[in-house]
Amino acid sequence: MSYVAGYTGTDSKEYIASQQSKKVLFLFLGYLSTAAVGAAQIYFLMAAMFELDASYALERWQIICFAFFFFFFSVLFLTRYVVLLLFAFLEASKQPNLKKLDRLQDTLVTILLPAFNEAENIEATILSALGTSYQNKEVIVIDDGSTDDTLATMQRLKRELQSSDELKIIHKPNGGKASALNLGFQHAKGEYILSMDADSELADGAIERLLVRIADTDLGGCAGQVAIRNTNNLMSYLQSLEYTLMNGTGRLFQSFFASVLVAPGPITLFKKEALIAVEEMSKLVPGPPPKPSDIAGPWESDTFAEDAKLSMAMLGAGYGIVFEPSALCYTQCPSTPTALLSQRYRW
Questions:
Q1: For residues 332 and 232, what is the distance between their CA atoms, to the nearest angstrom?
Q2: Which of 14, 90, 100, 110 is deepest in the core (most CB within 10 A)?
Q3: What single DSSP character describes residue 297?
Q4: Residues near 41 by Cβ (< 8 Å), separated by ≥ 6?
Q5: What is the pLDDT of residues 37-96, one digit of tens each?
Q6: How many Cβ atoms are within 10 Å of 136's Cβ, its own excluded?
Q7: How far is 30 from 39, CA to CA, in rounded Å?
Q8: CATH number given to 98-346
C-alpha cells in the first residue's frame, strides 16, 4: 500500500539543505553581531566615563564603581551569547550517520498520534505518518473523546487504506493529551516511540534521522525541528524565525551536552526503555491524586506542558536527550494575535 504524504522526497531534502545553510550563516552573523555589540559597549563605556568625569566632577571611586559594574554585566551578557553560539555551532556541524540504517531497518517504531477535535487536520497527519520513508512502523491514533468528525475521519481513512496492520485506532473518553499518549503507549509494540501532534505532518526521512542519533547509545530521546508551513503573513514569518533560530539555537546548545530541556511534542523519538524508566520513577515521587480520566504512564496530566515535564523527568532518570535539526515536522502556527496568545498561555 502506498500513501501520499504532505512533504516528502525532494521538498524535505531541499528544505533541510536550506535550513542547515541558514543556521550556519545566522550563527556566523550572530558572532559578528556579538563582537560588534561588545565593541560598541566598550566604546560607550569609555565615552561615558570621560563625560561623567567632566560634567559632574565625580569622585574617582564613583567612576571606578560605575565602570566596573557596567563592564562586568556587559562581559557577562556577551560571554553568555558567545558560549551559546559556539556550542550551537559545534552541534549544528554534526551530521546524522545514516549508514547505521542498514542494521536498523528491522527496528520497529511506533508513532503515537493523540487527537481531540482535529477533523480538519487528522487525515493529512495520518497520511504523512504512514507515507514517511521509514518502513518498519506502526501508527496508533488515539481519539480523545472528540465531539466533531475526528473519529469518523479516522475510521473512514482506515477503511479506504485497508491498512489494518500499520494503522490502529483507539477511542477513549476525553481525558487530555497526556492520558491519550499513555493509552497509546500501553498498546505500542515498537522499541522506539515517536510522539506527534494531530495538526502536524512528518517530513520524509525524519524518523531515520532521529533513529540514528540515539540507536546504540545511552540517550533516551531525540527531538526534531518543528517548521512552520503556513507562512502567509508577518506574524507567521516571525514565528518561523523564532522556531528556527530562537528555539533551534537554544536546543542546539543544550543538545551538545545531551540535555535538551523541552523535547517538542510534535516530533520527538524516545526509546521505549527510557519511557518505562520515567514511568517507574514517577511512581516513587508523590504527586496530586489522579483524576478519574487520568491514565498512568510516562506522560503526566497535571500540567499543560507535558512534553517539558517528560523531558525533565527523562533527564532526571539519567537518559540524555539530543536535537536533530534535519528531522522535520511541519505544523500550522497561529495566524492571529488572539490565537497566538492562546497558544502561549498553554505553553
A1: 11
A2: 110
A3: S
A4: 70, 74, 78
A5: 667 766 766 666 666 555 555 566 666 776 777 777 777 877 888 888 889 888 988 888
A6: 13
A7: 14
A8: 3.90.550.10
